[in-house]
Amino acid sequence: MKIIITRLIFLLLIFSSFSFAQKKNSQYRMLYNSDGTDILGNFYYGSKPITIDEVKSYVDRVVNTPITTFLICSGALSPYHKSSYDRAFGDGEDERLKKRLLERPEDSLQRTMMKIYKTNFKILNDLGTDIIEICVNRAKEKGKEAFISVRMNDLHFTDTGEYFPSTKSEFWLNHPEYWMGDHPGWHASGAFNFAHKEVRDYKLNLIKEECEKYNIDGIELDFMRFFVLFPFEKGKEYLDVMTNWIKQIRKEINIIATKKKKKILLSIRVAPDVELCLNKGLDLKKWIKLNLIDFITAAPHWICDPNMPISKFKRDLGNPDIPFYATLDDGQFQPREFRSHGIYRGVAANYYSQGIDGLYFFNFFFTEKSLKELDSLKNIDSTFYVTIKYPELLSEMASLNSLKNKNKIYSLSDGSQETSYHHNSPFPIFVSAWEEYKVKLNIPEDFSDSKPEMILLFVRGTKNSNFLVKLNGKILSPANSDLANLYRRNANLLPDDEVYVFSIPYNYVKYGENDFNFRSIQPKAFFLKRMEVSVKFGNVKFFGYF
User: Fold this and answer.
1) Tens digits of residue pLDDT in 223-248
2) Residues 6+ apart with CB under 8 A from 223
3) Could you tell me which residues are beta bridge partners of residue 536?
4) Cis omega (within 30 of 0) for bond into 335
């Protein structure tokens, strides 16, 4: 009974913190993006043939959380709905299309998935609906904002030497002259080249169609799926072209909104770097000045940057009044490591402390199997570190208040990058005995009124290295190396690497930026690859799993 009462009090505190955040900031949002394939594939229910109620349940899973806005992706290379402008994803496999590309029979998983998508698309289509309509209407019914997220240049199926025409857009197949051609990056040679008016018109027509067809509150232009728009290093030549196109989108959306007698917002998801956006053809400052967009979401692509420079990004844009949100994706390091609960909390706290108006969750999927596994783990006393996502974690990340006194891991990227965006991290660092190397880490924690039980520094670097670490000028002492295994900080450890553990007295840490200095105390230099700080307030069952 005592445990139940404690948990009830904890939940009340979370939601009171959430309410406070809403009242304090009228621009507050918590946005949840479903990429659509999890629903069309019915992954939560083991990919069985789908029902309308099951589609609704994908929205319902986040209804009793602080999520304010549900975004449903409208398609990959082709749309998830019947369209006047292209063949729908999963809408059969035209015999004519099979002749266009070489099929590879060994790709059985891809073929299996397309059969599932095809089956579920047909089930819903025969009932006169689709996943977008059901999700949008369900979100509205449950009092949430409903957005469609439009992937500006999805590259999942643009491998030009590939197979399976059923994954391809008919517009894409019919017009290889609109493909990018020679461009570095995963599947980028098959990306649409927005220098062609026909490509821009095609995308605009899909956007207009979706605004007319669905009862949405807004459209998101997701440039981070993928950040390839124009020929390599030619983006600045098309700044005016792209601005005029955004003007056209805004105009058409306003016309449709007037007919519907409602407002339809226009948002963008872009990399948090003004110069990089310019290089890609996006003049964000001009779009803001011309009132073309209603809010901005900052995001890297796929590999999340735990120290994304949001405050600098806002300053470089001239600190506009429009709302700013930050994306939390599920992967952080290479090879890909899924984020744990403690890492999610640490990144969320970092982002909030930089003045965002809310968080945006991408690839935050649940499955029936994983939630059952989590329930089982919670009954095991030795459970310490968890990567399984669950809806309650969204509530914990509603604000800095709801994150207060929760177990966290603060971290920096190991230098992984994609689509030109360089993570805000100095790693990897080549450390020698000749100088100290300073690394800054934001830790938005005030320990004056709530002292943590333990703070640890985990450093990944070359095996058998000997080095000195200072935090804000004070030397740190080594801690038990076995803690690296408990906190799972040795995941995907390379043969030549090792994880070093140091103890941090809580009074060494200051709120905000902290300076970590490294110096080799051996003749040879070595590489430092990662740095993470865990803050443990107490038992993981009550203060959150790492």
Assistant:
1) 999 999 999 999 999 999 999 999 99
2) 152, 153, 229, 268, 269, 270, 271, 280, 282
3) 454
4) yes
